[in-house]
């Protein structure tokens, strides 16, 4: 029997890993949902629940490059619309509730980029959502503190800061548009 839920999660994802496919996303999401059911008494999870880090890396795969992060968010924290560049991402909620809104990128007749909100999903403990390359979303911590796990196929810090591949949006005159550098 495994000592914790984190080690089997890593082994399962490594065994499933390959090019982006529907099956890979479904398998990784299922593995993440299993991790969300970990007992709060497991030392790694107990430490997260006790310390409530804003951001903590739980695992970085040396061969495949995927990364598992934990984020604790206070109630009311809003993260404005953004994409994840070339990466696909899974978000799972371990505790609290987070609303995640989905957006479509459009252009007005003058060619200016604007976002249209298409939906909002209340993500509760045990549930995970998938965002594929190019998907745009925002997050709002509705019930907090919330503990989220973010699984990314690659290092998003590098993707965003070093390579400039992540797009963040700003609100201007009531319209979400591209954040000018």
Q: How many domains?
A: 1
Q: Roughly what percent helix?
A: 10-25%
Under the CATH scheme, which class?
Mainly Beta
Q: Give the overall shape.
A: globular
Count every beta strand, where a strand is a DSSP E run of 2 or more residues: 9
- Our estimate of the beta-strand percent is 35-45%
Oligomer: single chain
- Amino-to-carboxy terminus distance: 51 Å
**Helical/strand content category:** alpha+beta
Label the CATH architecture: Sandwich
Radius of gyration: 17 Å
Summarize the biggest pleated sheet.
Answer: 7 strands, antiparallel
Features:
181 residues; alpha+beta; 9 strands; 23% helix; globular
Question: Quick gist of this model?
Answer:
The protein is α+β, with helices and mostly antiparallel strands and 181 residues long. It has helices at 6-16, 22-36, 43-51, 156-162; strands at residues 56-60, 67-73, 78-82, 89-107, 113-123, 128-131, 136-152, 169-172, 175-178.
Write the layout of secondary structure elements.
Layout: H1 6-16, H2 22-36, H3 43-51, E1 56-60, E2 67-73, E3 78-82, E4 89-107, E5 113-123, E6 128-131, E7 136-152, H4 156-162, E8 169-172, E9 175-178
Antiparallel strand pairs: 1-2, 2-7, 3-7, 4-5, 4-6, 4-7, 8-9
Helix pairs in contact: 1-2
């Amino acid at each position: 029997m495994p000592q914790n839920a984190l080690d089997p999660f890593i082994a399962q994802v490594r065994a499933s890993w390959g090019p982006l496919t529907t099956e890979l996303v479904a398998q990784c999401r299922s593995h993440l949902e299993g991790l969300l059911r970990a007992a709060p008494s497991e030392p790694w999870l107990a430490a997260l629940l006790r310390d409530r880090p804003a951001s903590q890396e739980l695992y970085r795969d040396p061969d495949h490059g995927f990364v598992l992060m934990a984020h604790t968010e206070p109630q009311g924290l809003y993260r404005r619309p953004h994409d994840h560049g070339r990466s696909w991402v899974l978000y799972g909620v371990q505790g609290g509730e987070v609303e995640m809104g989905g957006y479509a990128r459009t252009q007005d007749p003058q060619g200016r980029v604007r976002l249209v909100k298409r939906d909002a999903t209340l993500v509760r403990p045990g549930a995970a959502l998938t965002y594929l390359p190019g998907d745009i979303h925002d997050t709002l911590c509705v019930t907090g503190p919330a503990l989220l796990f973010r699984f990314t196929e690659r290092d998003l810090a590098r993707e965003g800061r070093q390579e400039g591949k992540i797009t963040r949006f700003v609100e201007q005159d009531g319209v979400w548009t591209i954040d000018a550098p």
